[in-house]
Write a structure and sequence with these properties.
With about 450 residues, the protein is of the alpha/beta class. Helices cover about 30% and strands about 30% of the residues. The structure holds ligand EPZ. Ligand EPZ binds next to helix 1, helix 5, helix 6 and helix 12.
Length: about 450
């Protein structure tokens, strides 16, 4: 109808403007681990008592997780920004809706706790994401082995514990899965009898979750090893727990020191959780000193960076969540390196953006061949996922000229106040917020 103006919504799209070439210097504090805080918050659903979590990172994914808990009926108090006091006494809804799950796959971590405590759960089946199809078939198969019935109804996973309680069993994962291990560990904690998980993930975040669950009264042994034993208990209680430091944020700042030929003291980290990255960076010529159990001193060695091959594997080997950052570093290393990605089938999206900046990278299947050292030039580029965006910021910090990075909402999902942190180390980086007008589809009204 002529004359009726369409409804326009304003959306805000942040970008980063980076002027590269400045060596980063100074001290940086590492925040709590996103990938531990997410399952630990989900674990609060296992008890009506209050669970207090400290060192919860203030990042978008945790804000989403908090919203999920509140939507389910839990109360979440934050006496301090990074302390969450969660009481899931009045949970009456056992459903993680599509609206939330589509923004954060880790919402599937509600499945185990809801099923274990309430005997039922409905969680929207997460779709694929930029880095891969990422099915949850292994989670669901394991729940069936614990006695649950699992069905897919209009895009939702509907799980029920027929006997009202899950029953312990031996579970062997065909493939190592981090959230799969976490989901089953939480579910089995309230099951009847004993569960043994074989080929379990061994990430430090699994150990951290098990530590919290044991404080809540669970009986879990072997977390952090390939075999986890869980003696189910009738009920779990409240607890207080401090989330471990984020090893991927630690690794990202280690690469930042090396790629800008700077010098950083990285504090409140846990070097023991990131040994494979420390060893690989040392091989590549980065000087890394463990000043103590929670502090690293990092700088680029006088001999410069050397190309070294890497293959991503489950912990304790080189983490896939550091692959993109490492690829950026290898563009600045002398020689040819192979970066082999074995965990996710589509985790080289950052490569094409690095090539736009002048990098020499050839991809074939799950192998990227990086030739260096190449001079990177500033350019407009686009982030595609959380770790890809981190690698693009690192490349921009050592590039000549200005780089404009679009879709940085990805980085806000997992890095806390990243611009402020880099600026505190001397980086020339700023966040640009652009408002864009979106015409609403009038017919939808
Ligand atoms: C966790 O994802 C992390 N996320 C990811 O970090 C990390 O990349 C990944 O583990 C691997 O280390 C959280 O902890 C919230 P997986 P998760 O199940 O648990 C396949 C980041 O950047 N698989 O260990 O979803 C799967 O497709 C994020 O912070 C199945 O086939 O990963 C993948 O190829 C990104 N069926 C492999 O296993 C299943 O049921 C490992 O996935 C489950 C997984």
């Amino acid at each position: 109808m002529p004359g009726i103006l369409p409804t326009v919504f304003t959306a805000f799209m942040d970008k980063f403007l980076v002027r590269g070439g400045k060596p980063l210097k100074g001290k940086i504090e590492i925040g709590g681990a996103k990938n531990s805080a997410l399952p630990c918050l989900a674990a609060t659903l296992l008890t009506p008592e209050t669970v207090t979590l400290h060192n919860v990172p203030y990042v978008k994914d945790l804000i989403t997780q908090r919203r999920l808990l509140e939507d389910l009926g839990a109360t979440v108090l934050t006496p301090e920004l990074r302390t969450h006091k969660v009481t899931a006494r009045n949970v009456q809804i056992y459903e993680a809706p599509y609206e939330l799950v589509k923004t954060m796959r880790a919402s599937v971590l509600a499945l185990g706790p809801l099923l274990a405590r309430f005997g039922q759960a409905k969680v929207s089946l997460p779709g694929g994401c930029a880095i891969g199809t990422r099915p949850i078939d292994l989670h669901l198969k394991a729940f069936e082995q614990l006695g649950a019935t699992v069905s897919l109804e209009s895009g939702d996973v509907v799980a029920r514990a027929p006997k009202g309680r899950l029953v312990g069993n031996n579970i062997e994962f065909e493939k190592v899965t981090v959230t799969g291990t976490e989901n089953v560990m939480m579910a089995a904690a309230l099951g009847s009898g004993k569960t043994v998980i074989k080929n379990a993930a061994q990430e430090p975040e699994i150990e951290d979750l098990a530590e919290l669950l044991n404080k809540m009264g669970a009986r879990i042994k072997g977390a952090g090893t390939p075999v986890i034993e869980i003696e189910g208990v009738e009920a779990l209680g409240g607890a207080e727990h401090t989330i471990i430091p984020d090893r991927i944020e630690t690794g990202t700042f280690m690469v930042a020191a090396a790629i800008t030929h700077g010098e950083l003291e990285i504090k409140s980290c846990r070097p023991e959780h990131i040994k494979a990255v420390i060893n690989k960076l040392r091989e590549a010529g980065v000087e890394i000193e463990e000043l103590n159990q929670s502090t690293l001193h990092v700088r680029c060695g006088s001999g410069g960076l050397k190309a070294k091959d890497v293959t991503t594997e489950p912990h304790p080997d080189f983490p896939t969540d550091m692959q993109a950052q490492y690829m950026a570093l290898m563009t600045q290393a002398e020689g040819e390196s192979k970066v082999i990605e074995t965990i996710f089938e589509n985790r080289f999206m950052h490569a094409s953006e690095l090539i736009r900046m002048g990098a020499d990278i050839n991809i074939s299947g799950n192998t990227a061949v990086v030739r260096g050292k190449t001079k990177l030039m500033g350019a407009p580029i686009i982030a595609s996922d959380l770790r890809a965006s981190a690698s693009l910021v690192l490349a921009a910090l050592c590039a000549e000229g200005e780089t404009l990075i679009d879709r940085v909402y990805h980085i806000d999902r997992g890095y806390e106040t990243i611009v402020r942190k880099f600026r505190s180390l001397g980086a020339d980086i700023q966040r640009i917020t652009e408002s864009i007008a979106i015409a609403a589809d009038e017919s939808a009204k």
